[in-house]
Write a structure and sequence with these properties.
The chain is of the alpha+beta class. It is 38% helix and 22% strand. The protein is built from 5 helices and 7 strands, in the order βββββααααββα. Helix 3 packs across helix 4. The longest helix has 13 residues. The protein is globular, with a radius of gyration of 17 Å. About 4% of the residues have low confidence.
């Protein structure tokens, strides 16, 4: 995807223009999607764009060690786990720490511009920013 205001360009199976008309757009990463994105555009509902979530299962252990030296193991683990949109509770479960600890680290990572938080109704999701992903990818490329 590429954002060129006021247009979001998305690789899609057909050439299509979706006018939002002020309704907003819900971006939904999917672990089950592959290939181009799909849109769900019912004029009576908010538009939804479902796209494949990127996840590199080989990056985990190497990256945690490399980033851990820079920012600490827990914070590095949280940054890695936010490669896909994730709730605080799921992060706590994945990393094996309390919700309060996750909240503390999320605040620090957000303040550093490494992750962003999106609230959709009662659902709050955290995901890496492009800067956070660049840091994870650089640490993975180092292989240490």
């Amino acid at each position: 995807m590429r954002w060129t205001p006021p247009v979001l360009h998305v690789r899609y199976s057909v050439d299509q223009t979706l006018h939002l008309d002020g309704r907003g757009l819900l971006l939904t990463p999917s672990h089950f999607g592959q290939g181009p994105a799909n849109s769900l555009a019912d004029p009576a509902l908010p538009p939804v764009l479902v796209y494949p979530a990127g996840y590199d299962s080989t990056a985990g252990p190497v990256t945690v060690r490399a980033l851990g030296r820079l920012m600490g193991g827990t914070r590095a683990s949280i940054l890695i786990a936010t490669g896909t949109a994730t709730t605080s509770g799921e992060l706590a479960r994945r990393v094996g720490v309390s919700a309060a600890t996750v909240s503390h680290h999320l605040s620090a990572l957000r303040a550093a511009g490494l992750l962003s938080t999106l609230q959709q109704g009662e659902l709050i999701l955290h995901t890496r920013t492009s800067t956070g992903s660049a840091l994870v990818n650089a640490a993975h490329a180092e292989g240490t």
